Structures are given as C-alpha cells and as structure tokens.
Amino acid sequence: MNFGEIAGEICKKIFPIPEERFVGAGSGIAICTLSSIDLLKEISHSNVMQKIAIAARLFSENRGIDELVRFVNQNPSLHTILVCGKEVSGHKTGHALFCLHKFGTDDSNRIINSISPDPILTVSKDEITNFQKIQLIDKIGETRLQNIIPIIQ
C-alpha cells in the first residue's frame, strides 16, 4: 500500500462520506459531481434521476478513476458522462479524468499530462480504450442543478 492509499483509508475513517453514488432509472448518461456532495444529494432527490443511469462523486485520481472506468466497461449502454461540480482540491480529479480520456496512460499506467499527485491506474489498456469511446462533457465548476438539467435533456 502506497502513501496515497494509506491516506485515503485514514480519510475514510476520519471523514466518512456515505453518499458515493445514486442509481437512476435511465441508462445512457451518468453525472459525476467531483467533490460537490450537496449537488450530488440535490440530483439524487430530483427528476433528473429518471433520465440518468447513475450520479456519483469522484474524489481520487487513482482508485476513483479506476472505479469509474470499470463502471463504464460494465455498462455498455452508457455513452455520456457529464462531469460537473467543484474540482477536488489537490487531487485535480476532473483534470485527470479528462487527460485519461484524451491521452490515456503511459507504460507505467500513469495518466498522461495529469497534474494530479498520484494518477496511476490499475485498469487495463483495453478498459481505458473502451472508456475513451464515450463522450465526456466538461462542466467542471458548475454546481447549480438548474444549469445541469438542460444539458441532459
């Protein structure tokens, strides 16, 4: 276990965040709220859930992105992820996600051009290639649900 993983486990114990994801009734669109838990909760209680497959947060540039890429690979009907909410301070998870989508990973499985401190993934190159086929919509910084709803209509 590296330092980042140890720090992540400590954070889970000290700052538990129960809201990780909410499953919707749709299938083709997902919403990633990055660090905006209030936005995630607001989405989970809205009619938007009828149109999306899932709404989830994304805190880490390694394990979190691994999980997101695996989710995409396990859900072939998913074609779009709307990335919104506040960027994760220090981790720059949204930036890392878009770098992965555009550039992939190097031979060490590090996300190319990412400015995150530990953007090393465990997913396969094939899983990454499949992830790169979906559409990512960049609305990083947008935290108002009324501005997100028209995008997924």
Notes on the structure:
By secondary structure, the protein is of the alpha/beta class. The protein has one domain (20-152). Helix content is 38%, strand content 14%. Helix 3 (63-74) packs across helix 5 (125-131).
> What are the low-pLDDT stretches, counting only 5+ consecutive residues below 50?
10-17
Tally of contiguous helical segments = 6
**Fraction of residues in helices?**
25-40%
Question: What is the typical, i.e. mean, pLDDT?
Answer: 89
Q: Quick one: how many beta strands?
A: 5
Helix-strand makeup class: alpha/beta
Record the SSE blueprint.
Elements: H1 3-14, E1 21-23, E2 29-32, H2 37-44, E3 54-56, H3 63-74, E4 80-85, H4 93-103, H5 125-131, E5 135-140, H6 145-152
Parallel strand pairs: 2-3, 2-4, 4-5
Antiparallel strand pairs: 1-3
Helix pairs in contact: 3-5
Properties at a glance:
153 residues, alpha/beta, five-stranded mixed beta sheet, 38% helix, globular
Q: Can you give me a brief rundown of this structure?
A:
With 153 residues, the protein is of the alpha/beta class. The chain is 38% helix and 14% strand.
